[in-house]
Design brief:
InterPro entries: Hect_E3_ubiquitin_ligase (IPR035983). One of its GO terms (molecular function) is ubiquitin-protein transferase activity. This is HECT domain-containing protein. This protein is mainly alpha-helical and about 270 residues long. The chain has three domains: about 120 residues, no CATH class; about 55 residues, no CATH class; about 60 residues, no CATH class. The strands form three sheets. Strands 5-7-6 form a three-stranded mixed beta sheet, with no helix packed on it. A two-stranded antiparallel sheet has the order 1-2. Strands 3-4 form a two-stranded antiparallel ribbon. The chain is elongated. It starts with 15 loop residues before the first helix and ends with a helix.
Length: about 270
């Protein structure tokens, strides 16, 4: 796979805000899907319901090592304080860190029902055997027999996402954060949070914007970085690219007036 090269042009951009914007962009693509010429309408790397997302079973994505790329994106975004990938199925996270996946985590209902036919010991009808064998052959597995029934059940479940998970794990290892994740299990929810934990209300959004720009009664940002502030003659506050420098009018007397103008700039 060729190395991806990026060329930025236009308005010069510097500062941590540029890094945040870059990783926010690529992680939004990872979460919402990529636009691809060879896949009409774009494609999702992770499918299913929120907090139960599993990797796509697309052979095109697998053969292109897209999940290796996804692992790199997730790891680098985490290292640079960018957004994380939320909503993955807990089962996928267990598999990623050397556990197993369950039949209920299969997003394709037709495949799920076919695999479920192998559960138990009831005799299979000819139609049921045909469904199972068709699926097994498509994944280069042997036909079902009385002796391999349980083995085939376990194998089909593991085949659902095993290659995707291996690629994802490989991508994470290439960013060198794998030892941290395996030795400090408490970091896993930080890298792969639940989608419900990422919900942002309008009130929280307002507070985040104000904290990023100028916290009340504080000369430093909470994130530990200094903020360059210049007093200018203008009606409203402004900034250079991504808050590298904040330009404040000198006419403010009360914080509530400053807050109102800041919120107005963001359309609130």
């Amino acid at each position: 796979m060729s190395v991806v090269c990026l060329h930025f042009s236009g308005d010069p951009a510097i500062g941590d805000g540029v890094t945040r914007h870059f990783f926010a962009t690529i992680m939004s693509k990872l979460q919402a899907g990529f636009e691809m010429k060879f896949v009409p309408g774009g494609t999702l790397l992770f499918e299913g319901e929120q907090d139960h997302l599993i990797p796509s079973t697309s052979q095109l994505l697998l053969e292109s090592d897209f999940f290796v790329v996804a692992g790199r994106m997730i790891g680098h975004s985490f290292l640079h304080d960018g957004p994380c990938l939320g909503g993955l199925s807990p089962a996928i996270l267990h598999v990623l860190f050397e556990a197993t996946i369950a039949i209920k985590d299969c997003v394709d209902l037709d495949i799920r029902e076919t695999i479920k036919l192998l559960e138990g010991t009831a005799e299979l009808s000819s139609e049921e055997k045909n469904l199972i064998n068709e699926l097994a052959l498509s994944w280069d597995l042997p036909l079902v027999t009385c002796d391999n029934r349980r083995w085939l059940f376990d194998k089909l479940i593991s085949m659902l996402t095993s290659r995707q998970v291996k690629q994802l794990r490989r991508g994470l290892k290439e960013t060198l954060i794998w030892p941290l994740l395996t030795e400090r299990k408490d970091t896993i929810p930080l890298l792969f949070p639940r989608a419900s934990d990422l919900q942002c209300t309008p009130r929280v959004s307002d507070l985040m914007l104000l904290t990023q720009i100028l916290p009340p009664n504080s000369q430093e940002l909470d994130i530990g970085h200094d903020l360059d502030v210049t007093v200018v003659e203008s009606n409203l506050p402004s900034s250079s690219t991504c808050f590298h420098q904040l330009k404040l009018p000198g006419h403010y007397k009360e914080y509530c007036t400053f807050e109102r103008d800041i919120l107005a700039l963001f359309g609130h």
